[in-house]
From TrEMBL:
It comes from the Bacteria. It comes from Acetomicrobium mobile (strain ATCC BAA-54 / DSM 13181 / JCM 12221 / NGA) (Anaerobaculum mobile). Gene3D superfamilies: PucR C-terminal helix-turn-helix domain (1.10.10.2840). Residues 5-123 form the Purine catabolism PurC-like domain. This is Sugar diacid utilization regulator. Residues 459-510 form the PucR C-terminal helix-turn-helix domain.
Length: 524
C-alpha cells in the first residue's frame, strides 16, 4: 500500500496533504501512534506515524528536529491533527518535509486513531491475500464496474462487517435484513426488530453527519433488547435507507464500517437509478395511454380494455377523474399524486381513481397540508365515460380559476361547478334586474355613517357565513353585539327578515346576479 493510496482509493476523503508530495510513492507497512518526542527510536521504517501534536505543544521548535530524525528512519508518512494542540505548521517544518520527501498529512480532529488503524490494516491484509476471489470480497465488489447481484452485494457486506445490515429501497424492491450467516429476512413496519427502525421517525434520532444528499443518524430500539442502528439514507431521486446494527459496545460506526456503508449505498443508488431509467420508458407508455383515454382518442371500450391489459393497467369501475392542482400556482414538480393511474398535463396532474376508494375527508386533509385543489368528476361506469368525466373536471378547473375571490385549498366536485354555471346565468333572466333592485341596490345607497363597515361589506360577509351572526362577527373582527345591532338596522332598511328562508334565498340570488351582472350597478 502506497501513501498515495490514502487519497487515490478514497479511503480518507478529508485527509489533506500539506507537504512532501515527492514521497507519495512510499510503501506503508504499518501504523503507529507517537506520544513522545523520542518515539522515532522504536520505528522500523514504513510506518504511517500518527500524532495529535501534544508533545510539541510547549516547544514547537523541537518539531523541526523531530522531522529530521524520523526521515532517517524511512517513515512512510506523518499524520497530525491540527487545531487541537498545533494551530498550524511552521514554514520551516513544511520546507523540511519537502526536502526529505516526507508526506505531512493533516488529519481532521474528529478521527479516532482506531478508525484509521482499522482501515489501513484491513487494506494491508487484503493486499496480502493472493488467492481471495473478488466475489468473496465486499470491498472488491463495491469497486467493481460490473453489474452485481444486489442480494449478493448486501449479503457480502453483512459478512464483511459481521453485523446485520438492513435496507429499504423501494425502487429496487428491497425491504430486508441481511445477516452475516447469509440469511435474508423480509421485513416491514410491524417487524419486531431493529430493522423496523427504518420505518420510524421521531426524537430518538441522533444526528451523526450530513454529507451532501447523504444523511447519517443513529436510532435506538424502544423495546428490549435495546439496540442501536446506524442509518445511512439518501432521500433525493431514489430514496434509500441502509442500516448497520451495532453491537452492545458500539455507540457509532467505525470509520471502516462507515466507508463500506457509504460505498454500498452509492452502488445501491446507481442500481436504483438504472432501474428508474428502465421503468421510465414503460411509465411513459402508460401515461400516454391514460392521456389518450381522457382525451377521447378511443371509440371502443374493448380496445381500451385490451390496451390496458397489455400495459398492466387495472381499470376499475365506477371510477372518476380528478385534477390535482396547486392552489398557489407552485411548480407541479414540487408535489406528486398518490395513485398509480396518473399523468401530468400542463401545470396539473390528472388522476383516474376507483370511486369507492376516494374519501373526501382524506383528500380534504391532504389538500390543506399540500396547498392543493382536488377537482373531482362524477362517476364513469365504463372506459368510454372516462372522457366525459375528464371534460367535467376541466370545467371545474375553469370555475375555480375564474372565481371572484381565490378559493382555499380543498376538494371541489363537478356538481358544484354545475350549480355555479346555473347561478352565473341568472343575469340573463328578465326577472333578475327587478330582483337586484329590490334586494341588492339599496345596499349600495346606504351611507356608512358611524358604522365600522359598509352595508355591502356586512351583507357579503353574512352570506359568506351562511347568515350566522357569530361567524360574521368573527369574519369582520367585530364584537358580536355590534354585528347584531347592525343586522337589525339592515333588516329594517331592506324590509326583510333574516330568519325567513325566502328572504335569505332572495338575498343570495341577488348577490349572484350582482356578481355576474356588474352593469346593473349603473342602472338608475
Amino acid at each position: 500500500m502506497k501513501v498515495a493510496d490514502l487519497f487515490k482509493k478514497d479511503l480518507f476523503q478529508d485527509f489533506k496533504l500539506v507537504a512532501g508530495s515527492d514521497g507519495l510513492n512510499k510503501d506503508i507497512t504499518a501504523v503507529s501512534v507517537m506520544d513522545t518526542p523520542d518515539g522515532y527510536q522504536w520505528m522500523r521504517g514504513g510506518e504511517f506515524l500518527l500524532s495529535s501534536g501534544f508533545v510539541f505543544k510547549q516547544e514547537p521548535e523541537i518539531f523541526i528536529n523531530f522531522l529530521s530524525n524520523i526521515s532517517n528512519k524511512d517513515i512512510a508518512a506523518l499524520g497530525i491533527k491540527f487545531d487541537r494542540f498545533l494551530p498550524k505548521l511552521p514554514r520551516d517544518a513544511i520546507n523540511m518535509a519537502d526536502k526529505f520527501s516526507l508526506p505531512l498529512i493533516e488529519i481532521p480532529v474528529s478521527y479516532r486513531w482506531s478508525d484509521i488503524i482499522d482501515v489501513i490494516y484491513h487494506q494491508l491484509i487484503q493486499e496480502g491475500q493472493q488467492n481471495s476471489s473478488e466475489d468473496k470480497d465486499v470491498s472488491g465488489t463495491l469497486f467493481s464496474q460490473k453489474r452485481v447481484d444486489v442480494y449478493k452485494l448486501l449479503s457480502s457486506l453483512s459478512a464483511e462487517l459481521q453485523r446485520k445490515v438492513v435496507v429499504k429501497a423501494p425502487q429496487l424492491g428491497l425491504c430486508h435484513v441481511f445477516c452475516p450467516c447469509n440469511a435474508v429476512i423480509e421485513t416491514n413496519e410491524s417487524t419486531e426488530s431493529a430493522s423496523a427502525l427504518l420505518f420510524q421517525t421521531g426524537s430518538s434520532d441522533e444526528q451523526v453527519s450530513q454529507r451532501g444528499p447523504l444523511h447519517i443518524c443513529i436510532k435506538t430500539t424502544k423495546t428490549a433488547p435495546i439496540k442501536r442502528i446506524a442509518i445511512f439514507s439518501i432521500s433525493q431521486d431514489t430514496p434509500i435507507e441502509l442500516g448497520i446494527v451495532l453491537t452492545s459496545g458500539e455507540q457509532t460506526p467505525s470509520k471502516r464500517q462507515e466507508n463500506l456503508m457509504i460505498r454500498a449505498i452509492s452502488m445501491l443508488q446507481a442500481l436504483a437509478l438504472e432501474a428508474a431509467l428502465v421503468s421510465n420508458e414503460a411509465m411513459a407508455k402508460r401515461e400516454r395511454f391514460l392521456e389518450n383515454v381522457c382525451l377521447g382518442f378511443y371509440d371502443s371500450s374493448a380496445i381500451i380494455t385490451e390496451r390496458a391489459q397489455e400495459l398492466r393497467i387495472k381499470l376499475t369501475f365506477p371510477s372518476l377523474v380528478m385534477l390535482e392542482v396547486s392552489a398557489s400556482g407552485n411548480d407541479p414538480r414540487l408535489w406528486t399524486p398518490f395513485p398509480a393511474l396518473s399523468f401530468r398535463r400542463e401545470n396539473h396532474w390528472v388522476i383516474i381513481a376507483d370511486a369507492k376508494e376516494v374519501k373526501k375527508e382524506k383528500l380534504q386533509a391532504l389538500a390543506k397540508e399540500k396547498d392543493l385543489w382536488f377537482l373531482v368528476s362524477s362517476n364513469a361506469n365504463n372506459p368510454l365515460e372516462i372522457h366525459r368525466s375528464y371534460k367535467e373536471v376541466k370545467q371545474v378547473l375553469q370555475w375555480v380559476k375564474n372565481f371572484d375571490t381565490p378559493l382555499p385549498p380543498g376538494v371541489y366536485h363537478s356538481y358544484e361547478s354545475n350549480l355555479y354555471a346555473v347561478l352565473s346565468n341568472l343575469g340573463k333572466l328578465p326577472e333578475s334586474e327587478s330582483l337586484w333592485k329590490r334586494y341588492w341596490k339599496p345596499l349600495l345607497d346606504i351611507k356608512t355613517g358611524r358604522h365600522a363597515v359598509t352595508a355591502l361589506q356586512l351583507m357579503n360577509s353574512l352570506i359568506k357565513c351562511d347568515f350566522n351572526a357569530k361567524l360574521t362577527a368573527k369574519d369582520l373582527h367585530l364584537h358580536y353585539n355590534t354585528v347584531r345591532n347592525y343586522l337589525s338596522e339592515l333588516e329594517d332598511l331592506l324590509h326583510v327578515d333574516f330568519m325567513n328562508s325566502h328572504h335569505r334565498l332572495a338575498l343570495v340570488l341577488a348577490y349572484f346576479v350582482d356578481h355576474f351582472c356588474k352593469n346593473l350597478h349603473n342602472d338608475g
